[in-house]
Design brief:
single chain, 7-stranded mixed β-sheet, 27 strands, about 35% helix, globular
Length: about 625
């Protein structure tokens, strides 16, 4: 092997056995008559490849078995003769521990004492492509990414668990990959459970032949009742030959086959109901699979596919939420029964928020019935929804990682979530002004300081951050103010026009609503002495920009929706409100996804820029800040 080929190998040893085996074979041949990979002393490439193997649990385990004699000889020799290489590995491990300690100090304990990490860490994120990622998925993805890429020098695998074609779409599959990228998560490998359908099928055949699985045509309701009461199925003692025959009928989608499923033969009455002969294969002839088409008429369930493919792909540590805790003994049963490589499990608490539900079935119902605009609706708890509401990715990552991998299940208030976001947004959000169109009040400016002609001045976009830039503020004799502000004024009262100065209110016309008044400028007045400081816009010297200001409420009225609650009974009647407004001319320059602060109103995300679409207007979504209204 040439030097560049060895360099390429050094960066290709981080995957599962299937992906690294060809490289190990090449190294075995290369070392036939060599002590070192390159030259006659320990070279940089020797060190890189040795560390790469040492860092991969799958690789180092295989090499130590001695199946490849030359590779085993080289690896052991370098380990014994060059203690300095161990120092490099130790330094990397110390750096990892430091990261863990830093994360723990930031608000959560990451000191999990994961097993056998010295042999390499491979985590996986395993979403089903049957909907868009929600806030619960984000925790699983970010924790798996953290332990693979930050706490350890490991590998993160993304595997789309596409075993149910009746629910899955390519649209969801693509969206999941895009959403992970938006969260700054870059999996090292992307695979699909469907890549392994042939292997899982053969595995199920093996279970049946060994008497560990059987075909069952018990109807769904009866099966549910029998499992609940610990009653054995009447089909549990079918012969191996009969089970194999029925499985073949299932594979061919025959009338008899469609009446059956395959169940693992674990237990009838185990106190843990997850161990009571779970279904591991079922038929589906109605829905083509979005990747394999109509090749298969039978599909494995999560319970079988998960342990089989995790072990096959070299996953070392599988992190999943506590709702799967009861399934851990079942997962281990499959590993033991099938004599598969060990995969360690770690359960963490799912993130629950008040007045929020994460059931994809219920979320899909809202989308399908038009109660929301889509999966990216700002009221939805999907990644796309909360981003459209105005959540920044740094804040999302920070909030979730601060929760850590704790097993304690709590229902959180969204307030702390959005308060984290405000800390990111406030120092950099440019300030602009909006006046509501409804019942806006016309103001005539008088006095010695009143501008004879409209003029404009450069003002900072942010009072404390000059780097945000400047904006043009127009001044003239004709202004508009909000009705809510004008209603509070008394004739003769001194107020402050923000970014201009003080003025006396005179000649108020109208009462409910107020239609106008005169403002006599008093720029020598003390702005600290006034009680009312108000926003305003000049109607001359600039083009006022039409805007829609949207605000949103929780989708449900109940803090926690129970499993048997009827969704319709707890839906909030009105969850979106919109007010039309005038904005300053600078708002026309904003682009979609920009975040601004409208003075005295709050932070807003731009959902549509002024030049986007046929209507010349800006659409702004109010971003929660964690404070109650």
């Amino acid at each position: 092997m040439k030097a560049d080929e060895l360099v390429a190998v050094s960066s290709s040893l981080g995957g599962d056995f299937k992906s690294i085996e060809p490289h190990l074979i090449r190294l075995e041949k290369h070392l036939t008559l060599r002590t070192y990979l390159a030259g006659y002393t320990l070279s940089d490439i020797d060190a890189k490849i040795w560390i790469a193997i040492k860092s991969n649990r799958v690789a180092v385990s295989f090499v130590r078995k001695g199946s490849y004699a030359n590779l085993h000889r080289w690896f052991t020799y370098v380990e014994q003769v060059h203690p300095e290489i161990q120092a490099e590995v130790k330094a990397a491990d110390e750096a990892r521990k430091t990261k863990v300690q830093e994360a723990s100090r930031a608000g959560a304990s990451y000191n999990l004492a994961l097993q056998d990490t010295d042999k390499g860490v491979v985590t996986r994120f395993l979403p089903e492509p049957s909907g868009y990622l929600h806030i619960g998925h984000a925790k699983a993805a970010l924790l798996s990414d953290y332990f693979a890429h930050q706490a350890y020098k490991g590998t993160l695998r993304l595997r789309l668990d596409d075993t149910n074609p009746s629910k899955e779409k390519e649209e969801y599959q693509d969206a999941i990959i895009e959403d992970l990228a938006l969260m700054g998560i870059k999996p090292d490998v992307v695979t699909y459970t469907s890549d392994y359908f042939d292997h899982i099928y053969d595995t199920c055949l093996g279970l049946i032949r060994d008497g560990h699985a059987y075909a069952d045509d018990t109807d769904v309701e009866t099966m549910r009742e029998e499992r609940g009461k610990g009653i054995a199925s009447k089909r549990r003692d079918r012969t191996v030959e009969e089970n194999l025959r029925v499985f073949d009928e299932m594979k061919n989608g025959t009338e008899e086959g469609l009446k059956n499923c395959i169940r693992a033969k674990i237990s009838v009455d185990n106190p843990n109901k997850a161990m009571r002969d779970p279904v591991i294969y079922r038929c589906n002839i109605n829905d083509p699979h979005h990747r394999t088409g109509t090749k298969w008429k039978i599909y494995p369930t999560y319970d079988l596919a998960c342990p089989v493919v995790d072990s096959l792909e070299g996953v070392t540590h599988a992190l999943r939420s506590t709702e799967y805790t009861d399934r851990n003994p079942q997962f281990q049963w499959f590993l033991d029964t099938l004599k598969l490589r060990q995969v360690y499990m770690w359960d963490f608490a799912r993130m629950n928020f008040i007045r929020t539900f994460l059931s994809k079935r219920k979320l899909a119902k809202l989308v399908d019935t038009g109660r929301v605009w889509g999966w990216d609706d700002p009221r939805m708890p999907t990644i796309r929804g909360i981003r459209r509401r105005g959540m920044t990715i740094p804040a999302l990552r920070d909030f979730i990682l601060r929760q850590g991998p704790s097993r304690n299940v709590v229902s959180m208030d969204w307030a702390s979530f959005w308060a984290t976001n405000k800390k990111i947004v406030d120092p950099i959000a440019p300030r602009h002004t909006a006046i509501l169109k409804k019942d806006h009040v016309k103001v005539t400016v008088t006095g010695d300081d009143a501008p004879a002609e409209p003029r404009s001045e450069d003002k900072p976009l942010h009072p404390k951050n000059a780097e945000v830039g400047t904006k043009k503020v127009a001044f003239s004799k004709e202004l508009v103010l909000d009705q809510a502000d004008a209603k509070l004024f008394k004739d003769g009262e001194e107020i402050t026009l923000m970014q201009w100065g003080n003025a006396f209110v005179k000649s108020i016309t109208g009462s409910d609503p107020i239609s106008g008044f005169t403002a006599e400028l008093n720029l020598k007045g003390d702005v600290r002495a006034t009680d009312k400081k108000v926003t305003w816009l000049s109607t001359q010297g600039q083009k006022l920009i039409d805007a829609e200001l949207w605000d949103f409420d929780y989708l449900i009225t109940k803090d926690k929706l129970e499993e048997d609650d009827e969704l319709e009974k707890f839906l909030t009647p009105v969850t979106a409100t919109m007010e039309e407004a005038f904005c300053d001319e600078g708002v026309a320059k904003l682009k979609k996804d920009d975040i601004i602060q409208l003075e005295r109103r709050g932070y807003y995300r731009v959902d549509k820029g002024y030049e986007e679409g046929e209507e010349k207007k800006v659409v702004l979504f109010l971003i929660p800040t964690g404070k109650s209204k």
